[in-house]
Amino acid sequence: MTTISRRWICGIVGVLLAAVLTTPVSAQTPAAPPAGPQQKLYKPEELDQMLAPIALYDDALLSQVLMAATYPLEVIEAARWVKANPNLKGDAAVKAVQDKTWDVSVKSLTAFPQVLAQMSSQIEWTQKLGDAMLAQQKDVAASIQRLRKLSYDAGNLKTSTQQKVNVQPGTPQTIVIEPASPQTVYVPIYQPSWAYGTWPYPASPPYYYPPPPGYGYGAPLLRGFMFGVGVAAAGSLFGGWNWGSGDVNVNVNRAVNIDRNFNAGRLQNGNWQHLADHRKGVGYRDAATRAKYGKNIPGADGRRDFRGKDVTRPGGGTLARPGGVQRPGAIGQHGGVQRPGAGQRPGGVQHGNFGRHGGAIGGVERGGHRVNREAARGRSSAGGHRGGGGGHRGGGGHGGRR
Fold first, then answer.
1. Which of 170, 175, 186, 180 lies closest to 150 in space, CA to CA?
2. What is the pLDDT of residues 73-96, one digit of tens each?
3. Would residue 20 count as lying in a domain?
4. Whole-angstrom Cα distance, residue 97 to residue 233?
């Protein structure tokens, strides 16, 4: 090879090497592809499955159940207090717990002992409701409307002597449920496999819990709505849905009457906001919710899961189980496992156990003894409230079947 050829080749190599060395790093390294949308905690069929037992409650009561579900330990404490003070009814029960440390949503539910009894005995389900409310509130609102439309289109959701059903035009259509009388609230019980017509998710049948005994419901129904005793609790309902935005609006004046320590400054544009200190050590299930609220729970409290041995030892609940069912497993900070259930039992009413030990609160050492002490104090002070505000039996004193 001649000297000229060598010089020409070396020159070309030098030019190429210089080009590589002077190229900006950003041009050499391809940009990472944009991250995809974050996977949601619950799919639409899972939301519909868990909300099926309560989606047909009136708007105000439903909103308070879902707010309270974000404080599962306080729900158990309130359920124990109500059980220990059976003579305090409706608004009188709410007045008696004004000085408790529970969230205002939990205090308001003492007017509805049958609701607290169900939430406490089916605590895994309750926590799932709370998890969904914290992580996907707008999706929860959409699920409720989806379920109401199923029931309405099936011809089952109608105005009755206990509640009013108002279908508001628009896209999508909005269905509002209110008490028929503003002074008296009835809590409905229904079999979801009937109420919603043909269930659209055969692999995820709706949850179902028979009515708790002792609240005027009687035997479970296969068809129709069943209403217990009407509750004089107009002053105990402080929340309501803004279906257009998916927010829960708070009536501050009523909330202050329920909880004298209620801080209206916590609200944003009059909408409900979750308070992490009322979790009392129960961990948050998904990463986004933990990042938003978990930082407010100090030390080991922020890492506690809702699993282990339940301090309330509730009885088992049931699921509607056509063709096999999936049971939610222990619900903890890292999620649960759904296990296939047994086939449908004869007669259509299912009585399998939902989480054989009824759910759990692990590591909350102070729960049982403290709740018992509070219940004892409630009994000792009950005499001052027994004379007034007893449960009102509206419309003849007893709900009916429709």
1. 175
2. 999 999 999 999 999 989 999 999
3. no
4. 14
- Domain assignment present for 206: yes
- For the CA atoms of the chain, what is the radius of gyration? 27
Give dist(CA 348, CA 81) in Å, integer: 34
Report the interhelical angle of 72-84 vs 123-135 (nearest 10°): 140
Whether 251 contacts 238, CB under 8 Å: yes
Burial of 172: CB neighbours in 10 Å, binned 0-12, 13-18, 19+: exposed
CA distance 187 to 115: 8
Q: Among 242, 256, 134, 235, which Cα is nearest to 185's?
A: 235
**Pair 355, 328: CB distance under 8 Å:** yes
Phi, psi of 250 (to 5 degrees): -115, 130
Q: Residue 161 in contact with residue 400, Cβ under 8 Å?
A: yes
Dist. CA 40–CA 93, nearest whole Å: 38
**The two three-digit tokens of residue 5, written as one number:** 């050829």
Per-residue model confidence (pLDDT) at position 399: 46
Closest-CA residue to 128 (of 262, 322, 282):
282
Helix (H) or strand (E) holding 227: strand 225-227
Q: Has residue 243 been placed in a domain? A: yes
**5 falls within a domain:** no
Which pair of tokens denotes residue 278? Answer: 């009322």
Share of the chain above pLDDT 90, in %: 45
Q: For residue 247, list its beta bridge partners.
A: 242
**What is the span of the domain harbouring residue 370?**
44-396
Number of domains in the chain: 1
